[in-house]
Amino acid sequence: MASSLLTGADTLVRVRTVSPRGLGFQGSDLHGKHIPALTLAASRFPRIGGVRVTQLVPKCSLSASRPASQPRFIQHKKEAFWFYRFLSIVYDHIINPGHWTEDMRDDALEPADLYDRNMIVVDVGGGTGFTTMGIVKHVDAKNVTILDQSPHQLAKARQKEPLKECKIIEGDAEDLPFNTDYADRYISAGSIEYWPDPQRGIREAYRVLKLGGKACLIGPVYPTHPLSQFFADVWMLFPKEEEYIEWFEKAGFKDVQLKRIGPKWYRGVRRHGLIMGCSVTGVKPASGDSPLQLGPKEEDVEKPVNPFVFMLRFLLGAMAATYYVLVPIYMWIKDQIVPKGLPI
């Protein structure tokens, strides 16, 4: 499923107090170094994911606040299913060039520590297998499982020669069909946007990993530009960085880190958000299930849907998706016109 200049944030200090109010990163480094785990900071320094950034130039600007639970129109998994029924035809040619390039993919997977070809890896929401193509550079394809709810996306993955030995299955990111303590690595890129309950999906990531296993979740960042905020909110979930880190820590992960990613020509300006904007990792510190207890799922996919409401929501989502296809084209043109060294 779909996909976010300086040299980044270096030194961070963990201090407890109030939660940061927002995220935007005008002029900040999309290719920044890892950002250590959440503890909430209050100081004159900008804060990211609840930690104080002591070396980041120029200073980040903060985005408008947004409730973590704010609903978006494309939320139901059935709607996402049909959305990708059509998008799968052009996904690799339309979405990836602007939001999820090979360089971005390799950069985002680096913190996953795919150092052993015998590792057991699950790629959750693997779609057409674009991210999996980066995984099998480091891990034998026979040890990799691609899971997605869209058979149309998975059909594209099956056609790719390097993925012929991968296990390819349909499934739900919030209810994974893997045993507890099963995998060495959990990877998910461009899938969290469609999870009705991100905390549940990240809890599942914890459950299926072995002791010492690492989860790597790659997803979008919430924009600061008002128009982009509007389209983000009517389309799908664009979390803030501190939300990602909080979800990981609540699920039980330790050594939670966040790395910003983006196309090279984006010049670090994140006010429009990115389909793929950050790579978050965490390590499972103990065998067994997550210590986090949750109630029933938020979304019942078997519940009847009003066809007129469905179509309206589908069209709004398609409109928002078109906007986000055009954003990287707009940013690429600005990169060609605006003198180098100036933010765009």
UniProtKB/TrEMBL annotation:
<keyword id="KW-0808">Transferase</keyword>
<feature type="domain" description="MPBQ/MBSQ family SAM-binding methyltransferase profile">
    <location>
        <begin position="72"/>
        <end position="281"/>
    </location>
</feature>
<dbReference type="GO" id="GO:0032259">
    <property type="term" value="P:methylation"/>
</dbReference>
<dbReference type="InterPro" id="IPR029063">
    <property type="entry name" value="SAM-dependent_MTases_sf"/>
</dbReference>
<keyword id="KW-0489">Methyltransferase</keyword>
<feature type="region of interest" description="SAM motif II">
    <location>
        <begin position="166"/>
        <end position="179"/>
    </location>
</feature>
<dbReference type="InterPro" id="IPR031164">
    <property type="entry name" value="SAM_MPBQ_MSBQ_MT"/>
</dbReference>
<feature type="region of interest" description="SAM motif I">
    <location>
        <begin position="121"/>
        <end position="130"/>
    </location>
</feature>
<keyword id="KW-0472">Membrane</keyword>
<feature type="region of interest" description="SAM motif III">
    <location>
        <begin position="207"/>
        <end position="220"/>
    </location>
</feature>
<keyword id="KW-0812">Transmembrane</keyword>
<dbReference type="Pfam" id="PF08241">
    <property type="entry name" value="Methyltransf_11"/>
</dbReference>
<feature type="transmembrane region" description="Helical">
    <location>
        <begin position="310"/>
        <end position="333"/>
    </location>
</feature>
<comment type="similarity">
    <text>Belongs to the class I-like SAM-binding methyltransferase superfamily. MPBQ/MBSQ MT family.</text>
</comment>
<dbReference type="InterPro" id="IPR013216">
    <property type="entry name" value="Methyltransf_11"/>
</dbReference>
<protein>
    <recommendedName>
        <fullName>MPBQ/MBSQ family SAM-binding methyltransferase profile domain-containing protein</fullName>
    </recommendedName>
</protein>
<keyword id="KW-0949">S-adenosyl-L-methionine</keyword>
<dbReference type="InterPro" id="IPR044649">
    <property type="entry name" value="MPBQ/MSBQ_MT"/>
</dbReference>
<dbReference type="GO" id="GO:0051741">
    <property type="term" value="F:2-methyl-6-phytyl-1,4-benzoquinone methyltransferase activity"/>
</dbReference>
<keyword id="KW-1133">Transmembrane helix</keyword>
